[in-house]
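Please go through the sequence and fold tokens given here and tell me how the chain folds. Record follows.
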Amino acid sequence: MKFQYFSLFLYLVITIAVVKADKKSFTAAIEACSKDHPITEAEQRQFFEDKNAEFSDTFKCHMKCVLEKEHIFKNGTLDEEAFIKHSQENPALNTHENDIHKTIEECKTVKGANECDTIFKIVKCLYGHRTLSVQ
């Protein structure tokens, strides 16, 4: 179960261009965030399988927690420099710099009902761009 949990969230982070994340740090972030924001495997799968699904506030806050601990978001805001840096480290994305900048510009201003919802919506926006998806 831990492997499946790790691999699903690792795919999420890869999708938004954080390929070179420190695995120990990433695993620690997931475990720490799971204490305050426990989520189910079904919710994890649903995120990747059903783009129109509704998600709990707990799931959204778990995502926010992990991505802030990994320094992709700071105070509920996408850290553009960190996102670009991680994108450039990804061989599948490092030749798409213009696409990355356009996607950031489009997605960074997405707003939700609260910080957790905002980060969730930004990630969905980033994830929805084919040029940033790692297949």
The radius of gyration is 14 Å. Residues 1-11, 14-21 have pLDDT under 50 and may be disordered.
